[in-house]
Amino acid sequence: MRHIEQTVKYLKNKGFEAPEVGIILGTGLGKLLEEVKILEEVSYNHIPNFPTATVEFHKGHLIYGELEGKKVVIMQGRFHLYEGYSLQDVTFPVRIMHRLGIKKLLVSNASGAINPEFKKGELMLIDDHINLLGGSPLAFKGVSQYGERFVDMSCPYDKQMSEKVEAIAKQNQIKLNKGVYASVLGPQLETRAEYRMLRTIGADAVGMSTVPEIIVANHLKLPVVAVSVLTDEGDPDNLEPVDIKEIIAMAAKAEPNMIVLFKELIKAIKV
Fold it and tell me: Which family, according to the similarity comment (predicted)?
C-alpha cells in the first residue's frame, strides 16, 4: 500500500491527473500512440517502485494524454513472469492506473492461434481465459486490504465493452474472432505436444501475458476488455520454427485494425 501511494503521488506530480481509460499495449503494438495527444510521458525506470521492461521490443513508458475526447493512461510495454518478475510486480501498474482514476481498462497482446479456423494477421476478442502460469496475483498476505480475496471470475471480460467491440468490427468490416486465451509462463514457445494439449483443453490462442492483469482488474471491479493480435499459427501437425522478428512484423500488419477497435470503443464508452 505504501508503494502504491508513493507511485501515485509521483505520477500525479508529473501531471497524470484523473485519467478515464487505461490501455496496455502488447508486443509490437505501439502505433496507437500516433493517435494520442501526449501530455506527459515517463520512463518506467524513473517511476518509483515500477518494474523495468527488459524485453527489447517493449519500450517501457507510461504515457498520459487524450484520445477520442477522453483522458487516457497508456502502458507502452508490459511486464512478464518470464522476465523474472513476480505476479504482484506484473500487475502493479494496473493497481496504479486504478488509483489514478481509470474507470475502464483496454488490453492488447500478441498471441499464437491454436484454433485451426483462426489465421495469423487476424484479431481475436478474448471471451474467456485459462490461467496456466502456476500462480495468482491475488495469492499474497493482506490481499483483502485491496478487495475481496475470492474474486468471482464467471465473466472476467466486460460484456458491454466486448459487445461494442464486436459491433465496431462488423461496422468496419474487420475480421474479429472470439475465443479463449491461454496464458503460459514462457519464454520458450510451445512444443507440438503442448499445442495439442492446449487445443484439447479449449484454448483458441496462447500467449505469455494478460491473464494476471485481468485477474487484478476483476479484483478491483474494473471493467476490462482484451484483444489479441494473432501473430502465428500453432498447428502441431505442420509446426514451423517461430521467428520473433516475424511475430513483430505480423503484429504490425494487424495493428491498424486493432487501433480502429480501440479508438472507436474509447469514443463510445461512458466513464
Answer: Belongs to the PNP/MTAP phosphorylase family.
What residues contact 248, with CB distance under 8 A and at least 6 apart?
Answer: 27, 28, 57, 231
The tens digit of pLDDT for each residue in 65-79 reads 999 999 999 999 899
Q: Is 141 exposed, middle or buried (0-12, 13-18, 19+ CB in 10 A)?
A: exposed
Residue 57 DSSP class: T
Q: What is the pTM of this model?
A: 0.95
- Cα distance between residue 242 and residue 116, in whole Å: 17
Angstrom distance (rounded) from CA 140 to CA 137:
8
**pLDDT tens digits, 14-48:** 999 999 999 999 877 788 999 999 999 999 999 99
Grid cell digits, residue 70:
477522453
Per-residue pLDDT at 61? 93
| DSSP code at position 49 | T
CATH no. for 2-268: 3.40.50.1580
Q: 22: helix, coil or strand? A: strand
Q: For residue 41, list its beta bridge partners.
A: 63
Grid coordinates representing 62? 507510461
The three-state secondary structure class of 221 is: coil
What distances in angstroms separate CA 236 from CA 167, 184, 192, 195, one per listed residue? 33, 17, 4, 6
The amino acid at 19 = P
